[in-house]
Amino acid sequence: MARQLKKFATGLATVSLALGGVVVLGSPAQAATEHCSSRWFIAEVDTPGENIDIEYEFCVQKANGKFRGMGYGRVMDGGGMRKVDSFKIETRLERHNRTVTKRVCDYTRAVNAGDTNADCRSPWARGRGAHTGDGRIYIDVDSDGEGGKWHTLVDSAPLS
Predict the structure, then answer these.
(1) Distance in angstroms (rounded) separating the CA atoms of residues 139 and 101
(2) Disulfide: which of 9, 101, 142, 152 matches 123 by Cβ 3.0-4.6 Å?
(3) Closest CA to 142 of 56, 49, 53
(4) What is the Cα–Cα distance from 44 to 19, expressed in whole angstroms?
């Protein structure tokens, strides 16, 4: 049930972002505002068996004078077989193109197990001025002999 609620909340945020670009979450005392990238990273990656499809975007969120970078998305068609040796998402909160906070989330097991929501959030940080959410995805396809590669994504619109 909790997984279904998370999927619903992620889907609702995605639809809201697609329609208006700004989402307000929580009660008025804890209202959060976020701005997201102007376009999603959408890719099909050649993997053993069926290919995996990736849909991802980065956002910046502000609540109670604090900011954090957020990544939203999903990886589909993992199919329950080994697809990748490594699949990581690095999410950063930036100000003036300098990293304020970051987090690397490892989704290797989840991608190899099947379809997964891959939401990765940087830690909160206090700040003033415009901040952006930014990041990249690391993919090392299983048995391709090429090693892994980082894919840099479009950062979010700034939020002050």
Answers:
(1) 22
(2) 101
(3) 49
(4) 25
Question: Contact, 102 vs 88, CB < 8 A?
Answer: no
Per-residue pLDDT of the chain (160 residues; tens, 9 = 90+): 333 333 333 443 443 334 334 444 444 445 789 999 988 999 999 998 889 999 999 999 999 999 999 999 999 986 678 999 999 999 999 999 999 999 999 999 999 988 889 999 999 999 999 999 999 999 999 988 899 999 999 999 999 9
Tokens encoding 78: 């993992």
Q: Which amino acid is at 17?
A: L
Residues in the chain: 160
In contact, 79 and 50? CB cutoff 8 Å? yes
Note the pTM of the prediction, 2 decimals: 0.79
